[in-house]
Amino acid sequence: MHDPVVQATSLGKQYSGGFRAKPIQALSDFSLTVHRGEVFGLLGPNGAGKTTFIKALLGVIRPTSGSATLLGQPIGTPASRFRVGYLPEQHRFPGYLTAVQALDLYARLSGHDAPSRKSESVRLLGRVGLAEWADTKVKKFSKGMMQRLGLAQALMGDPELVILDEPTDGVDPIGRREIRDLVTWLSQSGTTVFLNSHLLSEVEMVCTRAAILNDGKLVGQGSIAELTTAPAAYEAQGTPVDAGLPGLPDGVTHDGELPWATYRIHADSPEELTAMLGQLIKAGVTLRQVTSGKRTLEQAFVEIVADAEAAN
Ligand SMILES: Nc1ncnc2c1ncn2[C@@H]1O[C@H](COP(=O)(O)OP(=O)(O)O)[C@@H](O)[C@H]1O
Ligand SMILES: [Mg+2]
């Protein structure tokens, strides 16, 4: 379980900016560990460096500093890629091929021999729900079907790790749901999944852990539960008081819904929280529960990125 499937240590990538342009530092000092069995999401706005990281892992580009391993093998070596499936960002299949021909082409490229190719392609199309479209030309496919076909390609040979770059980008809600279900199924069948996305709610729904990348730098990581726990924010439920009443402490806001009101409390330490709860009790509130405040992954992302930029 704690066997690292992806391990990056201080990885950096600088692109030469081309003729007379400034070089671009796409990734800086980026360290990350993904364990076996995780569904790990790398989040970040467009241009944050997510695709750069994936390409460096797969040996498509060479990092300019740092090191990394995939399934225990140094990146850039064929052995590191042997058990890895990859769905590239905005991939294309030749439109004149049928779904089964497209997969057959990839099976051939990855060295499957003729007898196993056809059966493997048919099996994978069934797996991604495209069995009845096997003989339809790819140019007729919707974006969601294209992504599922791409996923089938990535699953060829039963990889231990599947890397998906923006798997749901441009896909409609039903298609996104189908892709999420496939990711969940993959994870349940023991495959480690690493995905890039700028779609935060997608990551929130499917990933067990996530890292946030901004401007090439890691600015946050943790389980989805950790990332969505708002620091210094708590919610207490209790009997309502008149919001105008003296005694409602500073930093407490109040929704006076009967029969229980929700108090939002901003406190930087347990001592401060306890003092504020004391003031609420003094104001006549009967409490029934206190919890850590929650934020959506999107709010977490905005706050974490803003904190990182303020710290610079
Ligand atoms: N081949 C390249 N040459 C020069 N700059 C690049 C190249 N690929 C990406 N970049 C730049 O590196 C930064 C990170 O890009 P990318 O990794 O594609 O981000 P993301 O996948 O998070 O949208 C961006 O500023 C992008 O313009
Ligand atoms: Mg990208």
The percent range for strand residues is 25-35%
Distinct bound molecules:
adenosine-5'-diphosphate, magnesium ion
The CATH homologous superfamily of the largest domain corresponds to: P-loop containing nucleotide triphosphate hydrolases
Overall number of strands = 14
Sketch the major β-sheet. 6 strands, mixed
Helix amount, in percent?
Answer: 25-40%
Low-confidence stretches: none
Which strands sit side by side, in order, in the main sheet? 6-7-8-3-9-10
The CATH class of the largest domain is identified as Alpha Beta
What value does the average pLDDT take? 89
Helix and strand string, N-terminal first? EEEHEEHEHHHEHEHEEHEEEHEH
Number of helices: 10
CATH architecture of the largest domain: 3-Layer(aba) Sandwich
Quickly count the domains.
2
Query: Which descriptor suits the 3D outline?
Result: elongated
Secondary structure elements and their pairing?
Elements (H helix, E strand, L loop, with lengths): L3 E12 L8 E12 L3 E5 L6 H8 L7 E6 L2 E2 L3 H4 L2 E4 L11 H11 L4 H14 L15 H12 L6 E5 L7 H16 L3 E6 L2 H7 L2 E6 L2 E7 H4 L1 E10 L13 E4 L5 E6 L3 H13 L4 E8 L2 H15 L1
The structure holds adenosine-5'-diphosphate and magnesium ion (MG).
